[in-house]
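Contributing new complexes? Match this layout with magnesium ion.
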Amino acid sequence: MLKIENLHAELEEDSEVKILKGLSLTIKPGEVHAIMGPNGSGKSTLSYVLSGRDGYAVTEGSATLEGVDLLEMEPEERAAAGLFLAFQYPVEIPGVGNMTFLRTAVNAQRKARGEEELSAGEFLKVIRAKAKELQIDADMLKRPVNVGFSGGEKKRNEILQMAMLEPKMCILDETDSGLDVDAMKLVSDGVNALRDAGRSFLVITHYQRLLNHIKPDVVHIMSEGRIIKTGGPELALEVEENGYADLMAEAQA
Amino acid sequence: MMPRAKLKAQKVEAANALLEGRALPQGGAWITRARSAAEKRVRELGLPTKRDEYWRYTDPRRLTAADVEPGALHDTQGEPPAFDAFDRVKLVFVDGVFDADASDPMALEGVEICQLSQAAMTDLHWARDLYGSLEARGQSPVERPLASLNTAYATQGVLIRITGKPEKPISLIYHRESETSDAMVHHVIRVESGAEATILENGPFATRFNQVMEVDIADGGTLHHIRAQGRDHERVGCAHFFARLGAGSHLKSFTLTANGALIRNDSVIWLDGAAGSAHVAGATVGDGAFHHDDTVFITHGAPRCESRQVFKKVLRRSAVGVFQGKILVNQVAQLTDGYQISQSLLLDEDAQFLAKPELEIYADDVKCSHGSTSGEIDSNQLFYLRARGVPEDTAKTLLVLAFLAEALDEIAEPAYAEDLRARLEAWFERRG
Ligand SMILES: Nc1ncnc2c1ncn2[C@@H]1O[C@H](COP(=O)(O)OP(=O)(O)OP(=O)(O)O)[C@@H](O)[C@H]1O
Ligand SMILES: [Mg+2]
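Output block (do not edit by hand):
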């Protein structure tokens, strides 16, 4: 599904700031991978580089989605190809209704893929059902995108978008941060409901707890722009107990 | 710096030169009096120049020149005009001349409508006291000689007296068919006590237009004014909107301006009675050779009044947007609530926004705020939309419309706001 090889990225405006330094990672269809790593290790940058945010220059390496070069595409093309990023910090857009935003997005992707657009009625039916599962009320759908949403509401709204867009490759950047216990369960259920053989997940998190709900197949530890260790779910438990110091020392050696 | 006296002499000389050999239009005694007085004002004030305080950002030369520069007509590509879908009483002007055949009968319950050309010959008592009077009042503290010029020479326009609550809006439609038309139109509107109506205006008007609308709202009256100045690029014009509000009366005036080489809109509003409210708003979209100027002057002359000014401009390429907005609070106007915001969204580095917000307050117990900002499209918002699959152009249009929404929200009736919003969306889609 997603194949990242020896990815190097730096800040566009300051090539001295090298963030990704030879990152490699392969996710097969249907798999859930988790990335853990200290603050500033480049996890969000990886998600931005994959989804096409301005400001980063890829100097080496490649990233493909189902064999197609992601890095050459515009952000909207990547989305239409099936990539989705649940933002660590969802963006507020005053003046754009949540519902309008989602319908525009869903239909833009369908159009890009040569599929028929959803009518207003169909769209409404689908979104109501999915919003209900995530306990997002009608009022939140009407309000401007993320404006005045609590931290947890913003994260649930990200998952709603994911559920509506039905992407193939979902990257969740700290979707658990800021969630209370119940919301964490809600969000995890939302994610698990989307798990299937044709869909893959890359879950970025600081906490092992999320991984109790969303069971990963593979766990990666990232440090200073690289994957320094890859293992099974037990790796997350090890980090939870001992922190990153040992793993980092091990990698240096 | 040129000495004031010399500048003034030049302005007066220019006015006299422009009026040389020009006779006042024919009319009855009352209107001839009003026109003569206005003509005298023009000669005394002189023509505006870029050296005048309120013309610093906008060069009035094309508005004051003796001749009109020809301008090409705009191909509307079948796009229906604003408010097309609404049931309304249509009063049509072609190049500034009333077209009775194209207009609806002037019959509507709760309204009296009369053409200026007819009223000029008869004696319409309510209009007689009003024609030119608010314009004359509006010459101080800021001089507005172009409006006096209009009072003196306009032969076209309508006089509308609203006595009830008409069920339909009155729609003033300005077609443009000539590449050299020079239009002068003067409307007078009187809203009687407790009456309420909506006045719509739309269309390109003329190659050059000079419009005055004098609005007198009696105690407890309400007027909604929604104007869509649009479409033709190659035209210049100025519109003066003078409104006087009695106690407990309300005014909402909204203007959408798209295209136009040079458009200047002056709104001059007096809150004369207690507990009135005046909301003036504007949304402007300009691309390329576009210069748009909103100049607003609101005077709080009585206690407990509320005023709002909300102006939003989206500009690109060499488009220039100007906002000059003033709130003057007289000493008697305690408990005034005044608000003013002007914002621009510059879509590239060539566009320009010039703002001059002013507050002048003589009462001590007031709440007044004003703010002006100039910014570009937020890159985080743009990326967020694109990351969800929304193409860049569509995403930008969404953000631009979101930016303008606050101004459109000032329109009380959502259906009109939606009509204008949809036009803006089409405008951006056409341009990419
Ligand atoms: N646009 C930017 N400008 C300046 N520095 C940046 C920018 N983007 C990323 N960085 C720097 O790159 C490094 C990696 O940042 P990134 O946000 O990817 O880390 P992270 O692993 O997601 O951290 P966290 O766990 O705190 O979310 C940090 O040192 C950060 O300051
Ligand atoms: Mg991060």
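Reviewers usually confirm one structural detail per submission. For this one: Chain B touches chain A through 22 residues (CB under 8 Å).
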